[in-house]
Specification:
Blueprint (H helix, E strand, L loop, with lengths): L31 E4 L4 E5 L5 E5 L3 H5 L2 E6 L27 E2 L5 E5 L3 E5 L15
Antiparallel strand pairs: 1-2, 2-3, 3-4, 5-6, 6-7
Length: about 130
């Protein structure tokens, strides 16, 4: 935002997933967002998982491109009595998203564990290209 008193809307974007449960309808907001120096933005959104948008150019800022999207899917591994924050144990329930020094995307899921993903599109937080 170049002028916080008068922000300008550049574009819009919609999540790539349908809700995993019919009653959730993306009730919760995005939780944490992590950007790279090369214009990739990783967004965690609790029950919607995590996705990476490319906003590296003016055109892509107006119409962000989804580079990747992932929803943790492992079996629940916490005791149900620990659910103080949510009424039901949701999977996925992504707490955050962050880039490590290798350009890997680290995704903590509150109810199933931590996932480390290597982006396949070849853009990394450190500017290193490649991928598997």
């Amino acid at each position: 935002v170049t002028d916080p008193a008068h922000p300008a809307k550049l574009g819009t974007w919609a999540p790539p997933f349908k809700p995993t449960a019919p009653w959730t309808s993306y009730t919760f907001s995005a939780h944490e967002i992590a950007a790279t120096a090369t214009g990739q933005v990783a967004i965690s959104w609790y029950h919607a998982g995590v996705w990476v948008l490319d906003v590296s150019t003016k055109e892509r800022q107006e119409k962000p491109v989804t580079l990747a999207a992932y929803q943790p899917h492992q079996a629940l591994n916490v005791v149900p009595s620990t659910f103080a924050q949510t009424p039901l144990p949701l999977v996925p329930f992504v707490w955050g998203a962050g880039w490590d020094e290798r350009g890997y995307l680290v995704i903590p899921d509150m109810h199933t564990g931590v996932y480390v993903l290597k982006p396949e599109w070849g853009l990394h937080a450190t500017g290193v290209s490649g991928g598997q």
